[in-house]
């Protein structure tokens, strides 16, 4: 296994596999923040302390075989090129903050990319498990297994009253962030999402964009996650999030049915116009591509478009990001050049899907 595997093996499980409620839920993620006793948090740590953490992680976990997961590959962030870092960000394998860490950031990745362990980000260790569809409990179970496995070798910073200690006070307690990435186009089209977001926040949850804090919700994709980490168990936090997610699923499906019933022609027109743009454009910006991909994904889920798999849309959402486009090009591209390559990539990918659907040779 090597860096090339994670850069060239572009489609990971949450993109090309369908899970429960995958017509609305793209992925489920559990992230556990952990720090080591008697070593300063990364926000104030010295270079020597940062290197000490990397040494411990390499000694105990790098290249180790994990049951049902495989051998963990160690990547030193400081040794990666800028484009390589951002490809990993776009695949949701590392955070933007870790990509910007040039001194002693690192990560451990599983071959199937379900598990990513970030080292020296905001905390010493962040265990991330990413599953397709609505599989929060499954992701939690795997994250807890890794947590227990690592705790056999490491002494985590833990207080009997407060729980796990973290750099940011909002993570103290379980140190857990549970999140679900959802595609909610009907709630956006009907403008119901505007009244729902404040209500979600009042329930102790937060709504963010595709790449977490500070990111925009492009293509009607929202990330719903917990805010409270103290005073509740990991299981209770997941149950609370699942309760809200199931309500959003119900509301989204109801809105989709209403659109089909009351605005069928207008909806069809919107979906097929967007498909036409994707299938024929010679230049397209990332924001327009995200909107069109969302429309087409909605059309697939409602049975209006029958010759395109919804997983292709998941794939295109990632593969048309700036980092991926430039990685394939072999170097930096100007914005206009990226827009041209994005349009070309989408056209060719949709043509391959049509050939496959018609029994053609796609080799």
UniProtKB/TrEMBL annotation:
InterPro entries: Arg_Kinase (IPR023660), ATP-guanido_PTrfase (IPR000749), ATP-guanido_PTrfase_AS (IPR022415), ATP-guanido_PTrfase_cat (IPR022414), Gln_synth/guanido_kin_cat_dom (IPR014746). ATP binds at residues 27-31, 92, 126, 177-181, 208-213. Appears to be allosterically activated by the binding of pArg-containing polypeptides to the pArg-binding pocket localized in the C-terminal domain of McsB. It comes from the Bacteria. The keyword Nucleotide-binding applies. GO terms for biological process: phosphocreatine biosynthetic process. Keywords: Allosteric enzyme, ATP-binding, Kinase, Nucleotide-binding, Transferase. One of its GO terms (cellular component) is extracellular space. It catalyses: L-arginyl-[protein] + ATP = N(omega)-phospho-L-arginyl-[protein] + ADP + H(+). GO terms for molecular function: ATP binding; creatine kinase activity; protein arginine kinase activity. It is an enzyme of class 2 (transferase). Its EC number is 2.7.14.1. Pfam families: ATP-gua_Ptrans. The keyword Kinase applies. A motif (RDXXRA motif of the pArg binding pocket involved in allosteric regulation) lies at residues 338-343. CDD domains: bacterial_phosphagen_kinase. Residues 24-255 form the Phosphagen kinase C-terminal domain. Belongs to the ATP:guanido phosphotransferase family. NCBIfam families: PRK01059.1-4, PRK01059.1-5. PANTHER family: ARGININE KINASE 1-RELATED, ARGININE OR CREATINE KINASE. Catalyzes the specific phosphorylation of arginine residues in a large number of proteins. Is part of the bacterial stress response system. Protein arginine phosphorylation has a physiologically important role and is involved in the regulation of many critical cellular processes, such as protein homeostasis, motility, competence, and stringent and stress responses, by regulating gene expression and protein activity. This is Protein-arginine kinase. It comes from Sutcliffiella cohnii.
